[in-house]
Design a protein that fits this description.
Strand order of the largest sheet: 2-3-4-10-5-6-7
Largest sheet: 7 strands, mixed
Order of helices and strands: EHHHEEHEHEEEHEHEHEHHEH
CATH superfamily of one domain: Malate/L-lactate/L-sulpholactate dehydrogenase, four-helix barrel
Distance between the termini: 33 Å
CATH topology of one domain: Hypothetical Oxidoreductase Yiak, Chain: A, domain 1
Number of helices: 11
Helix content: 25-40%
Shape: globular
Structural class: alpha+beta
Radius of gyration: 20 Å
């Protein structure tokens, strides 16, 4: 079955309703109200950006773990003018990623550039959300994280690396330039959606638990996916693995559900040029991109993050679709 063949029952809901459902479900799972609101914000922004694999579909799994993960409040255990290390103490990555990039921005405000490593955290979801916290402050933000083994290095059929996301956000007008990608050919969230919708994978993207190529999402979740872009994606995934594990003092290959590492960095453009000069350069870049000849002669070339930016405005006004089965589950978790 292809994506176009799948026509699951869905319901259009408002952003306000979606946010309330997520917050109430997370609170009911044992998460404090303030933390639940922060996690829900990441999930809603993922939906608004068209990244449903990191949106409300994550709520049931989070409800089963997020209120029970932390063994204490995260704390900064090492720091200097332009760096810091946070011991998350098992706190969810949805909270510690925001803490890390915010601290990196604070330090970059003084040092010009700063990096913050995170130890002993969990899955953080929509990475572009955190990078954009830096660009909203006029800085270039970068965030990367390791995950449990889900991706087979090029030439293998066995998972060793995580899906290892990387996000970079650069302040620009009328919207930030945001590169947000998994180094895997297909993310866990996408596989979860495909499994829910009964949609098959394109060929050549995944293996089952026995190392045989599969188009079945459930089999792929039990097996491995390939890097995006072949060997090039493998190389980038390996770099992300090192930066977010060994560099911050974590196991280079974490166990599933175990402690993960993360790295967040911020750069103030004023460290190298003036804010006005940087803004002018970004405007010139945009002008040059938009002036390019296109394949069909009509559509314009989009900058990274532009499609999500345009979609966000539409979804804020019109809401977005949620599969009926998921909506029922969310209502049950939220207490009706």
């Amino acid at each position: 079955m292809s994506a176009s063949d799948a026509q699951p029952a869905a319901e259009r809901i408002t952003v306000e309703r979606a946010r309330k459902l997520a917050e109430r479900a997370l609170c009911a799972s044992g998460l404090a109200e303030e933390k639940a609101a922060a996690v829900a914000d990441v999930l809603i922004e993922a939906e608004l950006a068209g990244r449903s694999g990191h949106g409300l579909i994550r709520v049931p799994g989070l409800c089963g773990s997020v209120g029970k993960e932390a063994r204490g409040e995260p704390e900064v255990v090492r720091e200097g003018l332009g760096h810091a290390v946070i011991d998350a103490k098992g706190e969810t990555g949805y909270l510690t990623a925001s803490m890390a990039i915010d601290l990196a921005c604070d330090k970059a405000g003084e040092a010009g550039i700063a990096a913050v490593g995170v130890k002993d955290t969990t899955h953080a979801g929509f990475m572009g959300y955190y990078a954009r916290r830096a660009s909203a402050r006029g800085m270039i933000g970068a965030v990367c994280a390791e995950t449990f083994p889900r991706m087979a290095p090029t030439g293998s059929t066995e998972a060793l690396l995580g899906t290892n996301p990387l996000a970079v956000a650069i302040p620009a007008e009328p919207h930030d330039i945001v590169v947000d990608l998994s180094t895997a050919s297909v993310t866990n969230g996408a596989l979860m959606l495909m499994k829910t919708l009964g949609v098959g994978l394109p060929p050549g993207l995944a293996f089952d638990a026995d190392g045989k190529e599969t188009a079945d999402a459930a089999a792929a979740l039990a097996g491995a996916v390939v890097p995006f872009g072949g060997p090039k994606g493998y190389c980038i995934a390996l770099v992300v693995q090192i930066l977010s594990s060994a560099l911050v003092g974590m196991e280079v290959i974490p166990e599933r559900g175990g402690a993960y590492g993360m790295l967040a960095a911020a750069v103030a453009p004023e460290m190298f040029t003036t804010a006005d000069e940087f803004a002018a350069a970004m405007s010139e870049l945009r002008r040059r991109v938009k002036a390019l000849r296109t394949e069909d002669g009509e559509a314009e070339v989009l900058l990274p993050g532009e499609r999500a930016w345009l979609g966000r405005a539409e979804r804020l006004e019109a809401g977005f679709d949620v599969a009926a089965g998921l909506l029922e589950k969310l209502e049950g978790l939220a207490g009706g």
